[in-house]
Fold:
Amino acid sequence: MRAVDIIRKKRNGGALSGPEIAFLIEGSIKGQVPDYQLSALLMAVYCNGMSAEETVALTSAMVSSGVKLETGSIQGVKIDKHSTGGVGDKTLIILAPLMAAMGLKMPSIAGRGLGHTGGTIDKLSSIPGFRTDLGTEELAECLKTAGFFINGQTDQINPADKKIYALRDATSTVESIPLIAASIMSKKLSEGIDALVLDVKTGSGALTKGLEEARELANLMVRIGTSMGVTTIALVTDMDVPLGRSVGNALELKECISALKGNFAPDLMEITMTLAAWMLHLADVVSEETVPQRLGENLLKRYKDEIWDYIDHGDAFAKLIECVDAQHGNADAVLNPALLPAAGHIKPVISPWKGYITRMDAFAVGQASMLLGAGRGTNDDIDPAAGIIIGKKPGDAVNAETPFATLHTNDPSRLKEAEEVFLSGIEIGDREPLKRKLIHEVIFPE
Ligand code: URA
Structure:
């Protein structure tokens, strides 16, 4: 087999076989297929797509590029949650300690920021010393003791995703349904989990902007997970507006710390509580060997009351501290967030006139945050302190005197352009807009 022939086949719209896909992925990890050939394949997939069968083969080749975590001897249901990515989407850092406090085990392999979307690994890396490149033995220990870990792809676990993830970011091939599905599911299937809740984002700040596309991605990932023996469901949720009250790495981490102490923005609370309820339900499904059911209002409410107990009594926050310790981070910075990175330059943003915010475009906010230094853009360095605090959201009243957001950066030359981009995504109207629906639908295995 030759890489060039496989690339040509995909470029011409053909379907690749399992062995052809495995040849390229394996060859790339062994250094026999250079990055420029893998990049060419990614572009061909971006342009011509992949069938479900090819996507399953790609996922499986990516899992096989490294080791799968051995979690069989660890007590408790192993479950994870993964989002397809958005702006201000920080739920994993709240859910993982919460689920661990409630007795579940959450081994989470997450990613860095992709394009305008933030990445959990970047957010956690703002804790001094926090390591996201632990080896399998340390990860297993962390899972056993703290009840969860959040690690990146490594040379041991899914090195293919580590490589492809960076190449997609650099070759503008991020927004491809099969590549997103294989990237996410290969990480999840390397974790040794029993069940998985996916949060598939839709809207301007998502990788799949339209509802139909998001639904297609959700169905594909549920199918991959189920076919590989993991009980999987997907929620399709809104990403037209940034989630919560902050965008940017250390700023979002601070928001997670507040949330774990019970102080949630309403949209962040609704999404987090709903995902948590579905995770608890799936853990019951796995233990009782039944099939996932639609959660009725009462069931959602019951889980919610139980969940709040673990937040109110401090158990979830205590789990975060335990994990930060286990992953070599400075837990003092979590106990006292004033020790986390903070920007040297903060600029308030004021509305040009009085009215209600009727639109806050997540993509524009994500781009503005990247310009401030929170995303990778053209080089690999990110500023952990950069980002945006959003004081008012759609539906809130603003006036021409009081700031409704603040821009944070260590490079003041970035402020002007970032403010223009941020404001390009804001609309102010005379009338309060209708409340947005946050959770569009739940996708079950067929
Ligand atoms: N999250 C991932 O892990 N991979 C993607 O491709 C997109 C979001």
In short: The longest helix spans residues 266-288. The two ends are 36 Å apart (CA to CA). The chain has a mean pLDDT of 95. Residues 3-49 form a domain with the Transferase, Pyrimidine Nucleoside Phosphorylase; Chain A, domain 3 fold (CATH 1.20.970.10).
